[in-house]
Each structure stands twice: as structure tokens, then as C-alpha cells.
Amino acid sequence: MSVESKKPQEACCSKLKLFLVSLAFMYFAKAFGGAYMKSSITQIERRFDIPSSLIGVIDGSFEMGNLLVIAFVSYFGAKLHRPRLIGIGCLVMATGSFIVALPHFLQGPYKYETSMSHNTEANSTESILPCLSNHNLTEKDETPDIAAIQACEKAVGSSMWIYVFLGNMLRGIGETPSMPLGVSYLDDFSRQENTPFYLACIYTTGMLGPMVGFMLGSYLAKTYVDIGFVDLDSITITYKDSRWVGAWWLGFIVNGTVILLSSIPFFFLPKSLPKQGEEEEGGKKSTELASGPEQQSFLPDETQDGEDKEKIVTFKEMVKDFVPSLKRLFRNSIYTMIILTNLVAVNGFVGMITFKPKFMEQIYGQAASRANFLIGIMNLPAVALGFITGGFILKRFKLGVVGAARVSISASLGAFCMLSLQGFFHCDNAEVAGLTVAYQGYPQVSYHHSTLLSPCNMGCSCSMKHWDPVCAYNGMTYASPCLAGCQISTGMGKAMVFHNCTCIDTSTSPAANMSAVLGQCPRRTECDDKFKIYMALSVLGAFISACGGTPGYIVLLRSIQPDLKSLALGMQTLIVRTLGGIPPPIYFGALIDRTCLKWGTKQCGGRGACRLYDSNAFRMTFLGLVTGLYFLTNVLWGILYVKIIKRQKKLALRNQAKDNKVEGNTQNNGHANISISTNKEEDNKESSI
């Protein structure tokens, strides 16, 4: 008989493990796509010649897709076939990824901005005259033909970014069921003391996705966007150039295929499972982390009475019960405070991760590909290790709600300290003549495009709108060969060299070379040392912050009634992603745009993507926003912790009073009933953990 009883239990456990593995792989696939989108932000911005504020809107379209359906999926999905809904969501996500890549096949080849026609067909002995080849550009820039611009924009597909917007929104819609339905399904049918460990496993596996996403983003950022369609020898820029666009579209095709594969197992899982280990837990005392005894003591009586009474309800009844369920949920003051704290924290995190590669590129002179590589190989493993550590601490020390809250607030404070220190290790502005420093031998500049002109290049009639940087042998960058006053050039392609550049100062060293090569000059050696310290602080901060991830999630799970779990997780996702996922890329991007020193020019005219930022203003804007939001998060965590402690003490006294009244029930039954009824009314007034 014991053998027969073990068979269904083993089958149940195997299905639960299949769901756990499937959910972990799906989290990997969706995190892979999300991280790859973040790593491709710079490439998409350059490909479509759009400002950071608009790229923020495109990035936020994922959360907009979530917003459209999250409330309904969370509430109605909990009463339907959860695994199957997750599988359907994966199919929608895959479709969205393919749509994001679609513009590459609808657009023509990428034509990067240049101030002159580089002679790639002539042999290396022939020369062109940069200083004399731009006479007609100024007039052309000042008198644009509106009709010609509109025809040009239609031909080059300048509005193709809309496909990226819509595809990313579709990805957000498809991702919706995974968190509320997946986590609630796992929590419903697993041992409660195992939930933190399972969540840690899922999130740790999911963290491999961003690692792969950023690594692939790093590799493809070095691969030219039109690889296979153009002669790479004719390209005069390198992957370190701010005009370079990598093969961003290829990663979305790979991600769509992976998500498609991850959807398959969910269509073969049952709607529900027996509770894991329910036969063994009858006579055993639960750990402190188990939601049974602990959560019952933190939840109002009215929610427990009908907790195990399952019945089939109609769609009409579900709709009718939706608004009352929302009222019950938001009367929970602890839950509301958790939402507010998470909202502020996510604002800081989303803004930081969206523009972190750009920050590393502009402040420390790192190429976009190397920035993505370092995030993938250093920051993300630290985050994964942090998730495991947080889950292990909870399980090892059997911490409850209060203990989990202590771990979370400690991690939040530690991460804030690491973030604050990062601001002290930064590099100076890149030396660009006429933008960040004066032309050597001429007065100091203010940050305005008119200072690009100088007596040394005044006779060249240079365009001030184009960005085609050259690096002089004195370490100074010039916005174009013409603005450097270069008279002749030799070579072809990337090997082109410009000579007799009148703006290159040779007064300090008469024997110095008056030549320049294509591309922006690298940063100084001391900048690399500061960047290493910055990365060390960034990695340590990522680890400490992630240690509080799993405990914070446990505080959320244990603060809500079991029958409202899916709805609570869904509403948390809805609110946090609506106000924490959509606005940050937009307002971060808009404020970062204000620090731009040199805007690029679109193929058809008009302002394109930013080519050079004032690094000091960029740093103060970026780190100021992130640090301020993390500081507010710590303040809210402190308030939340005080509320949890007060509520725990209040409930402990209430339970003690109930026990005393039950003992005196035989002496005065009527008074006991009245007192208990009063307590129920108090519970109904304020739902709590």
C-alpha cells in the first residue's frame, strides 16, 4: 500500500519539477531578450538616428504591453489553465522578437554620417583635399528642401523604429503571464519552506539570460549592421566610432527562436497539482519560513475561513468579485507600502540599467561592445550569486517575514553606499577641439557649436553639423578633417591619414607631426585605472543589492492572502511596471539629451543621435538621479520595517488575548464570542501581513 501511495506523489513531484525547469528556462529566455534589448539601445538609437528620449519610449513599450493585459491575466488567469497561458504568452513573445528585427529587412543599407566623400576606390597614392571639399555644405545645410527631405525620409524608412516599438510591446504582452501565474502556481503546489529556494533557483537561472544577452550584444556590436550585404573594406569607421551600428537585428531572431522552444513544455502540464509533500507534513512542525502558521498569524480571520473551500465559479461571478477583491487587497497597508518601495527602487534600477552602457561609453571612453561585455561577464554573475546568497540565508537561518525584511533593508543600504562611492571615480571630458577644449593657441571655449570655427579653419568653409572625427598625433580630437584644417589625405578606407592640418598646434614641439587619423582619440591611461575602480564598486554593489531580492519577494508573498496571491502579484507587476518601467527610460533619456554637446545629422537632414556628451554634466545627471532614487528607497524600507514590527507586536498581543479568552470560554462563553467578533471587525478594517 505504501508503494501505491508513493506513485502519485512521485508523479506529482516530477510534474512540479518539470514546471520548475520549464519556468526557469522561460525566465532565461525572456531575460535574455530583455537584456539584449538593453544592450542594443545604443545601436538602435544610431541606426534610426533618434534621441535618447525617444529610445526611452521604445524601451518602455515593453512595459506598456504589460500594462494592457496584466490585471486581467493575473486575476482571470489564476482561475484558468495557468501553464497553458504561460505557453501562449511565450508564442506571443517570440512573435514580438521577430517583428523587432523586421525593419532591417525593409530598410536600405545603413549610410553613416560623414563630412566628405572618402575615396575608397582610388589607390593609396592619390589625395583628396578635405579643407577644400566642403565649400557647398554650409549653404546646403542652411536651405533645406522640405519636399526633398520628405521624399528622402520615405526612401530610407526613417520611421521604421515604429516596428521596434510595436514588436517590443508585443514582447511585453507575451511576458505578462510568466510572473504572476508562474510564481503563484509554484508557490501553491510546493512546500512553503521550499519556495524561497525554488524562487532563488528560477531567478538565478534567469540571470544567465542577461549574461547571454549582454555577451551576444557585445559580440554583435562589433559586427557591422549590413554584414553580408556590403563590402566591409569600404567602411571607413570602426566599432569604437560613435556612428558605428552593429548587427542589432540578428540577436532578436536568435532570441525569438529560443523563446519559441521554451513554450513547448507548458502545453503538456496539468492545470493543478497535489500539494508537494502534503502527506508528510501532517505531524511535522513547520519552519518559521513556512507560510502556514506564520502567514495565518499575519492574515485576518475572514480570509482563512474559506481558504480551502474550492468551488467552480462562472466567468460572471469572477467579474463580479474583481472589484471587491481589489478593495480587500489594497486595504492591506503592508502590501501597499511594499508596492511604493518597489516602485521607487525599480525607477532607479531601470534608469540605471538602460543607460549604463552609454554611461560607461561617455564617461570612461569604453566602446559599446566592451561595455556590454563587462556588464555580462562581471555585473550579472554577481547578481546571480546575490540571489543565491539571499535565498540561502533565508533557508539556512529559517528567517520569517521580519528576518527577511532585515536582510532586504541591509542589502539596500549596502548597495546605496557602493553607488554613492562611484561618483568619486570618473574621467574628465574627452578633448575635442571647439567643444570641450579650445583650439590650441586660441581662447577657451564655451559649450556651443559656433566655437567649432577658429581662425585656423576659417578659410575652409567647413560644415559644423557633421561629425566625422579625426585624432591628431597630439592627442586632440577634431570634429572633422575639415575643422582640423587638413589640406591633403593619403590612403583609403580605415587607413586614411590626413596631413598638413593647420589647427594642430606644433608650438610646444616643432618636430611634432601635423597629421591626423580617422576616429576619436582614446582616453588617457589614468582613466583606465579609475574605470577599474568603478567596475569593482559596481560589481560589489550589484551583489549586495541582489542579496535582498529573494528576501524582499518573500516579504511580499507572506503579506497577502492566499486567495489573492495571483491578483496581488499581478497588481504589483502592473503598478511597478507602469510607473517604474515606462517613465524612467523616458525622463532619464530626456535629461541625458540636455547634456549633449554635438548632435549628429540625419541622412535626410535634421538632428540625429547625439555623438558627444559633456561627460561631467552626464555623470552628475545620471548618478544624481540613480543615487537620489536609491536614497528614497532606503527611507521607504525603514518605514516599511517599522510598520512590520508594529503589526507583528499587535498581532502577537491579539493572539495571546484570544488564547486567554478561549481558556475562559467555559466560564463565560458569551463574553468570549463578543470579544472575538470585535477582533474580526478590527481585522476587516485593516488587512495586514
Automatic annotation (TrEMBL):
GO biological processes: monoatomic ion transport; sodium-independent organic anion transport
Cellular component (GO) terms are: basolateral plasma membrane
List, alphabetically, the InterPro entries matched: Kazal_dom, Kazal_dom_sf, MFS_dom, MFS_trans_sf, OATP
Q: According to Swiss-Prot or TrEMBL, what is its membrane topology?
A: Multi-pass membrane protein
Its Gene Ontology molecular function terms? bile acid transmembrane transporter activity; sodium-independent organic anion transmembrane transporter activity
Basic and acidic residues compositional bias: what residue ranges? 679-689
UniProt-recorded name of the protein: Solute carrier organic anion transporter family member
Q: Which organism is it from?
A: Poecilia formosa (Amazon molly)
